Amino acid sequence: MAKADILVRLINTLTKAEKRYFRLHSSLQRGSKDYVKLFDLLERHSYKNATAVKKAFHEQYPRISFEVCSKYLYKVIMDCLLYLHLQHNDTARLTSGLLKTDILFQKSLYEEGYRQLRKIQETARTSEKQELLLWALKQEMQVLQQLNFPYLPEKSLLKKQQYLQGVLQDIGQQLQHTALYEQLRYQWLYKGAVRTAGQKEALNHLVERERQTAGKTQEAIRTHLMFQAHYALITGYYETALQHFRTLNNMLETRGHLNTVAPIDHLQVLEGMLDSLRSTRRYRELSVFLEKVRQFKSDAPYLDVMTQRLVFIYELASHIDSGNFAAALALQKKQAPALLKKIHLLDVSQQAEIYLYLSLVHLGNEDINSAHENLEIVLQQSALYSNLPIFRTFKLIHLLLHYELGNYEYIRYETRAFRRHLHADNKRSFLLEKTIIKFLRNERLFTISTRPSNLWKKMSSNFDKIKEDKYEMQLLKLFDFSAWIEAKLKRKPLGKILREKYEAELADASSQLP
Questions:
Q1: Does 20 reside within a domain?
Q2: In terms of CB atoms within 10 Å, which of 36, 38, 57, 300 comes out highest?
Q3: Residue that is last in its domain, among 69, 88, 107
Q4: Structure confidence at residue 465 (pLDDT)
Q5: Which residue, 116, 111, 163, is CA-closest to 141?
Q6: What is the CATH number of the domain that holds 337?
Q7: What global pTM score does this model have?
Q8: How far, in Å, CA of 208 to CA of 158, rounded?
């Protein structure tokens, strides 16, 4: 990416506080400030690319070099951001402190250098920043060696070396532990939930290794809980996942913990809570945590759009699950335009999720053309999205829309290819997809003598098996395909069927209360 393109994106992501500091910093500088003119231009207008920016700049300031201004502006902005980062980030402050002690040692100011180094070591130790602690310990040993170990007994030297080795071992164990969680999260994001016993078995070795490498530091405890929570999500144990995410959230909301955790990590915990609450049909508690997401404060544009996405997705999900498609459409009209303007800041999986929910809202409101348009945004870029777990849901919803339009020949053609990807050697695998395809391929369902209500009784037995199977029920989290088939067979609106199921679940939950 060209430096000018990076500059455009960088300025678009600056917060109000960062812009304010840039202007304060530039106002204190002397001499020519042509770079501020370029900043003003980029702040006031939106440009597609660097070529458009360069053209507009030359039109307004023909005697000023765009290349020189853009390079210098980038440097000044980065210097300003670095300064602000040093004021608000503990890791950055400790790193800066280590660089300063190195300068003090180079200037032979050993006493002051040692004083600051000891302070940094203690802060790094208490805040569990092991990599910085290792750096500080190595810096101390290097200086001691250069000074020929002044006034240092051999036992003290050996003790320092042993402590340094212990820190190094702790870092190695921590990296192994984090690597296992990263592998599991990658599975969750790009391979999806476990759908067969064989897939679960393949994950078991990760679980055992994670137990063996988990440490006792606060960071290790958080990583362990995140691992266990995501493992429970992947394998369909939503109550267990909810317990782990609840523990994590309580831990993070304890005074002192939020300062040691990146905001994106806290947001991931909140998203895990929302996912678990929806999966366990706890909508009242879900609304409480949605309010927590709304109150999530961050100046970073990516985190801002992440919070918008979570509120939008889970508010829509609550309306869809309860069959209130009119409220879902009203919410979509209100929130979707602002979210879609920033959708490029999200990863492809999150973008696909938004388009899927937009399509589901239109499906529930019987606006098949609009539902199809939102699906096509993803389906037409299959090379970008086809490896995502959510893509299978797109394909199934796409078939549902063609069924609504009466395109049965197209359905027969598409389902041939779809069925080849299912595991024919395991009758219990992918029962949901097989049940849906069997229904979609029978376009003469209403012309036979069997009453639709009897047909639903016969087909609902399959869905009862699906709901009892932790592997099969995973796909029903995004959309209740059984409700759509029931609506077709009973010739009722989808919203009414979902509402009946929703009220029955609420009544059942109330009856189980003590």
A1: yes
A2: 38
A3: 88
A4: 77
A5: 163
A6: 1.25.40
A7: 0.83
A8: 35
d(CA 394, CA 418): 12
What confidence category does residue 137 fall into, taking pLDDT thresholds of 50, 70 and 90? very high
**According to the model, what pLDDT value does residue 4 have?**
74
Q: Which of 88, 114, 136 is the last residue of a domain?
A: 88
Cβ–Cβ under 8 Å, residues 245 and 276:
yes
Maximum alpha-carbon separation in the chain: 100
> Taking residues 113-132, what's their average pLDDT?
93
Condensed to tens digits (0 to 9), the pLDDT of residues 275-312 reads: 999 988 898 899 988 988 888 877 777 888 899 999 99
Distance of CA 396 to the CA centre of its chain: 24
Buried b / exposed e along 319-349 (16+ C-beta atoms within 10 A): bbbbbbbebbbebbeebbeebeebeebbeee
Nearest to 348 by CA among 314, 396, 393, 387: 387
Q: Which residues contact 315 (CB under 8 A, 6 or more apart)?
A: 290, 331, 335
Cβ atoms of 378 and 391 closer than 8 Å: yes
Give the tokens for residue 263.
């905001």
What single letter denotes the amino acid at residue 475?
Answer: L
What's the structural domain count of the chain? Answer: 2
Does 118 fall in a domain?
Answer: no
Tell me, what's the pLDDT at 428?
A: 45
Who's near 205: CB < 8 A, 6+ residues apart? none
Closest by alpha carbon to 223, among 254, 189, 178?
Answer: 178
Write out the residue range of the structural domain in which residue 454 sits. 298-514
Does 193 reside within a domain? no
Cα angle, residue 464 at apex, residues 458 and 469 outer, rounded to 5°? 140
Residue range 90-118, pLDDT digits in tens: 889 999 999 999 999 999 999 999 999 99
